[in-house]
Amino acid sequence: MSGSERRAWLLVAGVATAAFLAKMALAAQTRGPADVRFFWGFARAIARTDPVRVYAEPLPWLPVYNHPPLASWMLLVMEKLAQLHVPWRPLIRFPACLADLVTVLLVYAIVRRRASLRTAVLCALGAALCPVLVATSGYHGNTDSVAVMFAFAAAWLLVDRRMPLAAGLAATLCVSVKLIPIVAVPLLFAAAWRLGGRRALARFTVGSGALFALVWGPPLLLVPGGLKANVLEYAGGNFSFWGIVRFARWGGVPEPYVQLLRGEGHWLIVAAIMAVGVWLAWRRPADTPYAVAVTLALLLLLSTASGVQYLAWPAAGLFVIGLWQGLAYGITVGAVTASVYSGQRPVHWTTTEMAFGALGWAVLAACVVSALLPAAVRAAAAAGLRDVFCDALRDAVRARRRGGTAWAPYEPHLPGSHPRVPAPPHARAHDHPLTRTSPTGE
């Protein structure tokens, strides 16, 4: 690294470390939401049974245990540390705070490879100081930030470091902590194929498949019903203070349709988000981290479940998309999270908080549009240009075969219309490519 790059890296790392320490101080000094207590109950249940059979274990006085298998092992380790008198409240929030630190460094590395040093530093600093992440990681905890970190690590390892085997491991880790980054996994497979062909795809698949078998294999074999019901089919709580379900209820949509949207309908939404991610990665595989950021933002935008910690899903990734996107979302939604958490009522929003939450949703929608619009314009322009040259080449070849000018002057035209190429003098009207008829009249 040059001197300026070294100073920039030290600045980003220093601010990220300071933000991590501030979040841990917040975690140590606050009680946190009910999830802190619930996670202690989950950890005790896992220690009493094991990280696999916990999915079949009745858990009275606790919500559904909807966390993937790797989270179970993490909770088992934390329970052992708690038995050694490590305070539980900061301990359960430590993984999310540490994940944010790593994600900030990933944001810097990803943006630096695609933009100026100044832009990379500003985006990384914005991610480090993002109010949404301060509140969700330092106060709430949970594992959302950890899953996001592994998703961006997979994209960075695959594209920027050209390490498909390690990227496959990270891809499995991200969905083994929390299932939300599942929307980004198909695009990682597409990018592996586009970047390195069969060899890269094979290495990525081996890495992800081997770790998947190790982590997911035992519960899939021993307690498939519990894993399917608790994790794979979990539709979120019944709260609706954010997103399209909240808007549907505000608009008076009949409840059966709302429940259909939250039930079978949300799988269609997930499939559509996956398709968008694959399209982005297939067209520009070098920008796979950008595609991961877009899919996570789309997932929250179209989510049929509400949870304050869910607001962390796109927070860091929006700085990969652009500086103003990350700042606009972080400030707007950060104000909502701070208000909700300061009142210690994350599942009971006031009317004012829901109004500002709707504003935050609109800001997120604008960020997603700003990310997808350039890709759509590039795709349309490429398709139109391709049609122009294909039409010109085809008509020139036909003209040459009929004895006309081989490369007639070509006039630009709109995609879908037929270019005007002078026909040979002896050509008849029905010999034109658009009017020629066969003996059967077709």
UniProtKB/TrEMBL annotation:
By its UniProt entry, which Pfam families does this protein fall under?
PMT_2
The organism of origin for this protein: Streptomyces lichenis
Q: Where is this region: Disordered?
A: 408-442
Q: What is this protein called?
A: Glycosyltransferase family 39 protein
Q: Which UniProt keywords apply?
A: Membrane, Transmembrane, Transmembrane helix
Question: Which InterPro entries does the record associate with it?
Answer: RgtA/B/C-like
- Regions crossing the membrane: 90-111, 117-135, 165-189, 201-222, 265-282, 289-312, 318-342, 354-377
Q: Which residues form the Glycosyltransferase RgtA/B/C/D-like domain?
A: 66-216
